[in-house]
Specification:
By secondary structure, this protein is of the alpha/beta class. The chain has a single domain, classed as 3-Layer(aba) Sandwich (Rossmann fold), CATH 3.40.50.720. 47% of the residues lie in helices and 14% in strands. The chain contains 10 helices and 7 strands. It has a 7-stranded parallel sheet, sandwiched between helices. The chain is globular and about 55 Å long. The chain starts with 5 loop residues before the first strand and ends with a helix.
Amino acid sequence: MSQDDVVVVIGAGGMGAAIARRLGTGATLVLADLDEATLASERDQLTSIGYEVVTVPVDVGEQSSVAQLVEAATSRGPIRTLVHTAGLSPVQASIEAILRVDLLGAALVLDAFGAVIASSGSGVFIASMAGHIQPFSEELEERLTSTPTAALLSMPELAELDSPAGAYCLAKRSNHLRVQAASMSWAARGARVNSISPGVIATPMGNAELNGPMGEGMRAQIELSAAGRIGTPEDIASAVEFLTSPSSSFITGTDLLVDGGSVPAVRKMLAELGGF
């Protein structure tokens, strides 16, 4: 990768910052986030250690804002890598906010960057292990896959959601499905796109969840998982590095669980409790 190539990282929090450090060397790093103070702080830290950084404020739930980010990024050179980490967790936000950011926002970014990603480029969308836990009907999964992005928030099933956790699970399952479907249009440009589903990661968002209403269950999940520990932002950065490298050139349209074996532990816990 050369300085003329562009790496776009959306979300400057714990995972986004680790990913930016891992992928931004030797390229122009475009870092985007809604929080301009976070952006400025991360830019200053990165530039102080030699990175070439451009910051762009973005609201991923607003199509025009995503379009402005695309314009800013493409003006710097060919986009070789896109990593989308922005999101809200159940303890942070309402049902409506989670759907706007995690469901619609991811779809808007997937569409917009799929239209400009460079040949041989790659994208990674951070989903969640939550998208692997709750079962959804085939009919709903088909609608999550094929509903036009502009109509996503009008899906009647969304009105039936009764908790931020339910909205989060649905949004993250939609991320899996839409990335898989979009891999065909990305392939037409000679590019790849995948998603990653982290488990509990030691970021401010993850720590907020551990201290929230579901914290006890999450701690039990970590204890029962194969790894037996919480994940780190560097664990996710390593997975992103693999999925955006030539080493994964035969991988596209899939979701990689990076959860320390938590999903089997959660399924076992749910089975003992009688399931959903």
